[in-house]
From TrEMBL:
Gene3D superfamilies reported in the protein's UniProt record: Winged helix-like DNA-binding domain superfamily/Winged helix DNA-binding domain (1.10.10.10)
MF annotations from Gene Ontology: sequence-specific DNA binding; transposase activity
Name of the featured protein: IS3 family transposase ISAzo18
Pfam families, per database record: HTH_Tnp_1
SUPFAM superfamilies in the cross-refs: TrpR-like
GO biological process terms on file: DNA transposition
Tree of life domain: Bacteria
Protein source organism: Paraburkholderia domus
Amino acid sequence: MTKRNRRTHSPAFKAKVALAALKGDKTLAELAQQFDVHPNQITDWKKQLQERVADVFEAGNAAPAAPPVDVKVLHAKIGQLTLENDS
């Protein structure tokens, strides 16, 4: 039996797999084969999703705002780069 290297999955992938498991259209075995992960891993991700789903709706958990941008500095940089390109 060959040993598989440890893999890391993106949060988006984990969410996709966990949501598919929550849907219930396919069995864990089918999902495990489709996404090439162990069924126990799918169960863990599904459990994590169910435990943390309420956090999405918390008021203090909004996405951070973009840092303030100094428009004058950006316009100056655009002008400088335009001059460099024209030369």
